[in-house]
Aspartate carbamoyltransferase
Amino acid sequence: RQHLLTVDSLNRERVDHLLRVATRMEPIAQRRQVTRVLEGAVLGNLFFEASTRTRVSFNAAFCRLGGSVCDTTGFTFSSMAKGESLYDTSRVMSGYCDAIVMRHPDQGSVAEFAAATNVPVINGGDGPGEHPSQALLDIYTIDKEFQRLGKSLGGAHILLTGDLKYGRTVHSLIKLLSLYGPLRITLVSPPGLEMPSQLVDLVTSRGHHVEQRNSLASDFSDLDVVYATRIQKERFTDEMNESFQGLSNDFMVNRDFLDQRCSEHTIVMHPLPRDSRPGANDLNVDLNGDPRLAIFRQTDNGIPMRMAIFATLLEVDELVEKEMRPVRW
Ligand code: CP
């Protein structure tokens, strides 16, 4: 069985396959059809860090394929609170479950867990490491939005902004984007929160044009996608918290930025959650209701893409279309 721990395991062909399978899942995700292809299968959903979208949408996706889900959230509800190791937890869970989704605050921990099991493990986010299913649903969203607008990824201009150092979604996304294109990628972050240089080097070596800046105050009239991210304060040291306290609103994606610097066709994405507390500066609520704001279309796309990931890892992806029937409710 294969795992999904990092997007490094995916080439263009595998990503395109997942996009096609996700499209086939849409009638189920939109609650017009049902299937039972995973009847009898049990998912272990192990979340040792806060989550709404990833935890609930993986759960819903597995249920919509006919499977059942066991959820564990937080260290206090796991025997890891009593000192049990990742290795032992993994061996135990393998006996109970047919697939496991895991989120953990430590980078590399999900891979360590996966090494001890023979059931497919999906990385639901490992600290500042990677978040491969989020990046896959992001590519699926970009593809759908571009189809609607009559655009293609070839030659597109994509802006990734916010905390590019600790934001695991952008670490996975920039690698997946680099399979397409050629692209123009602009990276904008506060000083000290830049994209890791090895990822910039990788994308550049694949023939993409990458620019890095510390301000959004530029002309983005040719921009196709702005992908904003939250400042990951929970990953900061006390010293960093102090130095980023006065972070200005220069990195805020809001109506002024979109109307004055971008175009009427620029799509706004964000992995969410966006920080709605005073002083937060990622994505302003003044864009709510603007058709360019794709964030809730993006969250909806999490269901068909996560269904596609399960169906492919558990090798029922060719069965789903044959075993679909209309809903009775
Ligand atoms: N995008 C994302 O991972 O959201 P959650 O933290 O709510 O799962």
User: Anything to note?
Assistant: The radius of gyration is 20 Å.
